[in-house]
Structures are given as structure tokens and as C-alpha cells.
Amino acid sequence: MIAARSLDSYKKIAGEIAISQLGQLSKNLKGAKVVHVNSTREGGGVAEILNWMVPLMNELGLNTSWVVIEGNEGFFDVTKAFHNGMQGSPVKLTNKMIKCYEDTLKLNFTRLQNQLEEADFVFIHDPQPAAFLDMCPNRKGKWVWRCHIDSSNPSREVWKYIKSKVVKYDASIFSMPAFAQPLPHPQFIIAPSIDLLSEKNCDMSSKEISEILNKYNIPDNVPILTQVSRFDKFKDPLGVIEAFNELIKSIPAELVLAGGGATDDPEGKVVFEEVIKAAEDNDHIHVLMLPSDSHKTINALQRASTIVIQKSIQEGFGLTVTEALLKEKPVIGGNVGGIKLQLHNHYTGFLVETPEGAALRIRELLHDKDKLNRMGKIAKKFVIENFLLTRHLREYLTLLVGLKCELTNYVLTESSNC
Amino acid sequence: MTLKNNKLSNNLFEVKDCTIITRMGGVESAINLRELKERLITCSIDCLYYHFCETLIRPAFDNPEYRNDFALWAAYNLRDRVLAERLGIINPYSFSNLEDLRERIIEIVEDRLSCLSYILSVPKGDEFIFMRAATVVFDTGLVLKKPSDLLLYLPKMSKSTLYYHFMEARRRTQDRVDDFTFWLQFHPDKNQRIIDALSQIDFYFINLNELKSVLIKTLKNVVNKS
Q1: How close, in Å, is residue B128 to chain A by CA atoms?
Q2: Distance from CA of B158 to the nearest CA of A (A)
Q3: Nearest residue of B to residue A150 by CA position?
Q4: Complex confidence, ipTM
């Protein structure tokens, strides 16, 4: 877990106005009990977001806590099936799987019942804890289902089950409009964000960056191309290797595929082994399985890169894209999910459909350093203006004020009695 | 919606700020121009307002080519530059109300449909998705007492404050005037030159950073001439 930082420390980055806005907005929410529920304390974007959001909400006067559901391997196999199904993979749900899921959640609910019943606002992150609402008939607060994954084309069977669990929520949040599914309650759109002060995004000296490259024997005398992501088939690491093999027919380069696993991702190991096999005959491909706390290493790898790749075939938002853009790196990304929100051809990067497309765009940028640098600068400005955690927090507070006022479309805080 | 201006009885101007949160628009998405027209007929005017006016304060790439989402969709998804240009030139603030704006967009789309020999549909993922926003307005704690305070404090105002008082005000008021002008009109130290200068600003086709610069420059010019 990262150390909590105060709002004051973000003044220099986001500006005093942004911090003052948060203070004014939260005046109406002082003392409100907010509970966030997810399935992992570390690994993946959700845990990263909650690591900063919970302390900052508390600093603003909300009474915020974060609880994590627990389960055995069988439970996480089921929730992984939910995750894959929500992202479009065909998944067969058996009665045994549903029973394992619901029994485990009931055990968790017993542990968390008081906290959930008393909360004014409950945020349930992703499908894993979604069934809690059914178990909590005595709840007094508003419940929001926060879906972080690309659910634009879910498996019918999985969505049918998950929908039956989320349909009674007061509202839901998706990262992009395209991810939203028809539901009878208001559906809000909040893009995630990154923390500029975190180990993964803070400034680093060239010496620190060189040390990390040396540690992993990555030469820096040729362009370095990097994809940072979990070893997950939806991130298409094999497609990245294919693009790289095409590229180095004409341009020397090094490819780094760096990622880790998460406690709720049992499939990662299988994909990792496939990647190792595909890379075994090429000394210019560096496959790094990193522990989940390797934030500084990832920061250094992104900064050392000439171009960053995120060739996903399914993606939630893709925070690794945001991180790379912040570091003035144009990104070559798959034309899917939240990557489409972040990459704008010829401005911040390129959207591609195929390994060949990725190779083509990488080649184009490596041949035109002026364009590469110009796009890097636009990319950084874009992130600073839109994807800082202060904007993210502001939108959550706006939603909370809205929920408190029964989701009126237009709230004047000084005149509202809600 | 509560319709009101910011004029207070004692001639003070209470500076507000606002935030928005985007929500789904409540109508199905459109995969081609024919569907876009059908949805335009039935969608809430809040959707039109979102796609034309709230583009400035939501977190998104500030595409310099077009200011409204319909034009961007026509250009980048339908790949119909003719339609994009016709939609792109629309200034929503030049209409007396959003229903008139709706009528004009439908007219343009119908006109384009009549010229097309076949209707192109976009692939899944590229549909036009209708959105709207919920707005929360809050105090900043800043109060302007006299017209000269406006120039003094403009540099310290957030982009969303400028949006709220200079642009959004035109939606919530019957005479469709910005809050600054409304306040200045009734102030004992009224300066008609400032009011005239504000009315001359062609604000729709610039972003909020540019609007701040333009407002400051405009007021400075008036002060210098005075």
C-alpha cells in the first residue's frame, strides 16, 4: 500500500483552485459514512485508485472506509469467470460456481454487515462483491455499483446473472459510455485517473532510470518499446511480440513486456508461460514478471521508453496508457475500450487494429523524432487537464451530492435542503 | 432547474463554481444517420445541451477541429466531412432555445440524408451515444462589489466558474445573457462600454482557457480606453 498524501501536496500539480473546489463541494457531505468494497487490496487499477481516494475523502470530512472481500481459489476462479464474461469471453456458469460465489459472499457479508447497513453511501467495485446488495435489506444508504471493466459486449449468461444483482442499485458508474448496459437506474460516466505523486508517476533522475535498466540488462543504445500490463490474453502480449518481430526487420530496438499478477487473476501464469515461449529465441525481448509493488521499476521503464505500447484487444480504461502519456510518451494502442478515449491519432498516439498496424506506427514515429516529441508534449498536457486524481475525486463528490439530493439534475448547494 | 441570475439586492456579485457529472442520455445509441435523426427527435434537450455546450467542461480531448460531438461523430465515425462542416458551424447560443437548435440539427441531417445514395452504418463501438450531465453549483466564497473587481479577480477564477457565469448563464436565464452583464446592467457604477465589449465576444468556438484570456484582454482594453 502506498503512503497516504494530503490534499495540500496536490496543490502544486492541480492548482489551488482545484483543491478549493473539492473543499467547497464536500461541505455538503461532512460526516457522511462512505464504504468502498472491492476484491483485492493490491494489484490492478481499482486497488490503486482506492489507495489514494479513501484517505483524501477522509481528509475532506467524509467518514470513508475500504473493505476487501476474502475467498479461496475456487471463489476467485468464479469471479475471474465473471470478469472474463463481462469482457466478452464465452463463459459457462454452473450452479456449483454460483453456490461457491454466493456462499463466500455470505461469509463476507456476516463480517461486514454492520458497516454496510450503516453506511450513507456504498460503492461496490466491479462484479465480485455485487451480490452484497441482495444480502443487505436493512441498508439505509445509497448503493452505487462501480464497473471498471469493459462491459460493452458481455457474455449473455454472465451479464444475466450480474444484472440480476446490480439492477436494484441506486446508480451505477462506468468508465466510458460504451461500457454502460441498459439498467433501470441512472448510469454515470467517470473516467479513472492517475496520481502524479505516486511512485509509479513521480519524477525520476536519469541515474535511477539507468540503474533499473542495468538491473534487468536492458540496453538503452537503441529505442526501447514497452508494454506494461498484467499477463492477460486481453492485453495481447503475443500480438506485441509479433509487431516487434516485424519492426526489427528494419529498425533495431528492444522490447520490454513488464507485468505482474493479481491475487484475483489465476490465469496470469498460463499467459506468462506462453509469452516466455514466444520470446525465447529473441535476446531483444525482455519479459519481466514483476511483484505488485514494483511501481518505481514501471515508472523507470516507461520513462526509458521511446514509445509505449498497449495493444489490448479488450480494455477497461487502460491506466498504463495514461501513465505513459503523462511521461510524454506517445502510445500505440489497441482500438478498444478506454484506450479510444485517450489516444487521438497524430495528437497523443495511434490506435491500431493489428500487429502490423502497430509495427507501422512505431516505425513512423521512430523515423520522425520531431513528431514523436510534439505528440509527447500534447499527451502530457492532455493528461494533466483531464486525468488527474483531483478531477476523479471531484466527480465522485459531485455524484455523492447528486445522490444526496435524490439525483436531481441540477443542484444549487446553498439553496438545497438535501 | 432553478432559473436565476446572480444579481443580489445589495449589488454584490456572488461568484459561483460548478461541476458536472456525465450520465447516459436515456435514448438508444445511433449507428447511422437515419438513426441519429430518429434519436434527435426524441432525446431530451439536456442531451443536445451536453453535446453542444458541456463539451468544454467534461474531461475529454479538446479536439481543435469541431466544438460539438455531432460534428466530431460525422467527421471521424461516419467520415462525412460535408455533414461535419455543416454541423460544426452551428453556434448553439445563437438559438433562442434548445428546441430551435434541435429543429436546425434535424433539418441539416434530413437534408444530408436526402443527398446520400446509401446510408453508411458505423461498426460496433463507434455508435453515437447520447449523454447528458448532472450539474452541481456551489459557492466559491468570492464576492465582487464593484465592476472593477471583475478584472481584478478574473485571473483567479476557475474555468468552470467562467463556464457557469459566462456560458451556462445563457441557458438558465430568460433574456439569455451572461451573469456578468446582468450584474453590471443593474450596478450603480454601470459601465456600458464593458457591457458592450462583453456582448461582442465570439465565445463559442474557443476553449475556456482562451475565453479567460479573451475576457481579461477585453476588459483591459475598455479600462485603458477609459
Answers
A1: 9
A2: 6
A3: B125
A4: 0.91
